[in-house]
Design a protein that fits this description.
- The protein is α+β, with helices and mostly antiparallel strands.
- The protein folds into 3 domains: about 5-115, Orthogonal Bundle (Butyryl-Coa Dehydrogenase, subunit A, domain 1), CATH 1.10.540.10; about 120-215, Butyryl-CoA Dehydrogenase, subunit A, domain 2 (Beta Barrel); about 220-370, Butyryl-CoA Dehydrogenase, subunit A, domain 3 (Up-down Bundle), CATH 1.20.140.10.
- Helices cover about 55% and strands about 15% of the residues.
- It has helices at about 5-25, 25-35, 40-50, 70-80, 85-100, 105-115, 220-255, 265-295, 300-325, 340-345, 355-370, and strands spanning about 120-125, 140-145, 145-155, 165-170, 175-180, 190-195, 200-215, 255, 260.
- The protein has a 5-stranded mixed β-barrel.
- Strand 4 and strand 5 (about 175-180) form a beta hairpin.
- The radius of gyration is 21 Å and the shape is globular.
């Protein structure tokens, strides 16, 4: 896989950077979180018009049919601006539907994702199952030849407050399956709430909620979709680290002590160098995760994606903590954007599986490859 930007990718990266600089300022991001829960419909439509939402949607369904390498380009730029809209959940839904949904559902839903008219969120976590994909307690029952109802609960649905449709995992005759559930479906209760990184999560309660079956290969579909989400998440985190380092360098250059800029002190230069090293490591692992998505062997994909997740999460925490410390007392206030980046980077570890889970997954995939 060639990660040198093509002319088209460079143009896309440049246009996204201009968009973030002009349309996604610190003030806009705070206002968006305060007034819209991190989801502004106008911004969402702008992203759709720029081709961001349809980037990996197949061309015959209204998208551009790009691969994981282009996703790294896009998510890196969106991460620099801490763009709050649910672009990564859209990428997860696209991967699941494009690879596992029947043709009729692909024709209905993939164009709607690409043009921004539908916002999908993945609901797979439950209060008692942590990150285990196969441990769902939500149950699906067939109500009629082509209809199903779901009963159970889902928790911490990422961007669940902004979604109008949910991809829900449930056990169907003992097998994990995936279903589409409309937000306005009877029997569905959605409790939305703000999260620490100024986004919106949601808990779902399902009481005989009508649902449409996507696939009975739910575990395989979930793993694939979440792996696409992790690859995008790693690229976004690398972009956020990149911008946070720039913000910190600007602060150290402007702030003076003993009549000299803080940036002139060698000890602080070393700490900035360590932050830069961790950012480069995270960016490299984002490329590894993207490469893993093209692997034909599932164990190879799991190994590369989980390794990228663990290393990126570790780098994100380090860079975030160092940035706060280098800002001194100001770094602890809510007046500077360094806090926004710190919170977003801290969530890199817990979203889509924490370090413990991915270390276990990595070890299992290594054992499978060795065997």
């Amino acid at each position: 896989m060639d990660f040198t930007y093509s002319e088209e990718q460079q143009m896309l990266a440049d246009s996204l950077r201009r968009f973030v600089a002009s349309e996604y300022s610190f003030e806009h991001r705070r206002r968006n979180a305060r007034e819209h829960g991190g989801f502004d419909r106008a911004t969402w439509q702008q992203l759709a018009d720029m081709g961001v939402l349809g980037l990996t949607v197949p061309a015959d369904h209204g998208g551009f049919g790009e691969g994981p390498a282009s996703q790294v380009v896009v998510q890196r730029e969106l991460g620099r601006g801490l763009v709050q809209e649910p672009v990564i959940p859209a990428a997860i839904a696209t991967a699941i539907l494009a690879h596992h949904a029947p043709a009729a559902q692909q024709a209905e839903w993939l164009p709607a994702i690409a043009d921004g008219s539908k916002v999908l969120a993945l609901a797979y976590l439950e209060p008692a199952t942590r990150y285990r994909l196969d441990a769902a307690e939500t149950v699906a029952r067939q109500r009629e030849p082509n209809g199903y109802v779901l009963s159970g609960a889902k928790s911490v649905v990422w961007h669940g407050g902004a979604a109008d449709t949910y991809l829900v995992s449930a056990k169907l005759d003992g097998t994990l399956a995936l279903f589409l559930v409309s937000r306005d479906a009877p029997g569905l209760t959605v409790t939305a709430y703000p999260t620490i990184d100024r986004l919106s999560g949601a808990d779902l309660k399902l009481a005989d909620v009508p649902a449409t079956l996507v696939t009975v290969n739910g575990l395989q579909a979930l793993e694939l979709g979440i792996d696409h989400g992790i690859a995008a998440q790693c690229a976004a985190a690398a972009g956020a680290m990149e911008r946070l380092i720039e913000v910190t360098a600007e602060y150290l250059g402007a702030r003076k002590q003993f009549g000299k800029p803080l940036a002139s002190f060698q000890a602080l230069q070393h700490r900035m160098a360590d932050m830069l090293l961790q950012k480069e490591l995270a960016l490299s692992m984002a490329y590894v995760a993207a490469q893993g998505l093209d692997a034909t062997d599932a164990d190879e994909r799991r190994r590369k994606v989980s390794a990228a997740k663990v290393i990126t999460a570790r780098a994100a925490r380090f860079v975030g903590q160092q940035a706060v410390q280098l800002h001194g007392g100001m770094g602890m206030t809510d007046e500077l954007e360094v806090g926004d980046y710190f919170k977003a980077l801290a969530m890199t570890d817990v979203l889509l599986g924490d370090t413990d889970l991915h270390m276990e997954r990595y070890s299992a995939s290594m054992a499978a490859i060795a065997a």
